[in-house]
Each structure stands twice: as structure tokens, then as C-alpha cells.
């Protein structure tokens, strides 16, 4: 496993958890759709990272490679991140609105 990725994931974990807590609290308080879809963004990122580590810990890559199937934990990560970015583009982006420019 790539130790660089482990270090970066551990470094990012507090921020991801913080965003989950922030958007979860905001959704609970205000019931705004944007907070719900942002909460989904952070939870799905956590799920992608969790699947990456689970795939690695279960030792699936060596078993597949022994059978000539070239699919690793990095492929799980990359496919998961592609799905995550599609979610952001299709679900989150339509909810984002720019504030009008106000001059006082």
C-alpha cells in the first residue's frame, strides 16, 4: 500500500469528520437541501476511502493478480473517486448558488 496515501488520508480525516459534523448539524438545524447533499459528499468520500482500506486489508489484490486479474486497491480508489466526482457534478453543483454582488 502506498504510505503516502495513508499519511494524506490520516491528515485529511479530521477535516472530513469536521465537515460531516458541520453539514450534519446545519441540516438538523435548518433542513436545507444544500447541507444534505454536502453531508452526502463527505459521507460518500469516507465510504470510498473505507472501501479502499477494506480492499487492501482483505488482501484481495494478490489473490486477483494470481489469477491474472489486474485490479488493485488503487483501482477501487480511482473508480470510487470518479463516482464521487460525478455525485458532486450532478447532485451538489445544481444546489450551489452565487450570492449577488451587493454594494452598500
Please characterize this protein's 3D structure.
The chain has one domain. It has helices at 3-30, 33-57, 60-66, 73-92. It is elongated, with a radius of gyration of 18 Å. Helix 2 packs antiparallel against helix 4 (73-92). The longest helix has 28 residues, at 3-30. It contains four helices and no strands. 77% of the residues lie in helices and 0% in strands. With 104 residues, the protein is mainly α. The model has no long low-confidence stretch (mean pLDDT 93).
Key features of this structure:
104 residues; mainly alpha
How far is it from the N-terminal to the C-terminal residue, by CA? Answer: 55 Å
Number of strands: 0
Domain unit count: 1
Q: Number of helical segments?
A: 4
* Stretches with pLDDT under 50, minimum 5 residues: none
Helix content: over 70%
Largest sheet, in brief, is: none
Structural class: mainly alpha
Radius of gyration: 18 Å
Shape designation: elongated
Indicate the proportion of strand residues. Answer: under 5%
| Average pLDDT taken over every residue | 93
Order of helices and strands: HHHH
Amino acid at each position: 500500500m502506498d504510505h503516502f496515501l495513508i499519511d494524506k488520508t490520516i491528515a485529511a480525516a479530521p477535516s472530513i469528520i469536521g465537515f460531516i459534523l458541520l453539514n450534519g448539524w446545519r441540516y438538523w438545524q435548518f433542513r436545507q437541501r444544500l447541507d444534505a447533499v454536502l453531508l452526502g459528499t463527505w459521507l460518500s468520500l469516507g465510504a470510498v476511502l473505507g472501501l479502499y482500506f477494506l480492499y487492501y486489508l482483505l488482501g484481495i489484490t494478490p489473490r486477483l493478480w494470481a489469477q491474472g486479474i489486474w485490479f488493485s486497491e488503487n483501482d477501487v480508489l480511482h473508480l470510487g473517486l470518479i463516482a464521487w466526482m460525478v455525485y458532486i457534478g450532478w447532485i451538489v453543483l445544481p444546489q450551489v448558488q452565487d450570492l449577488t454582488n451587493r454594494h452598500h
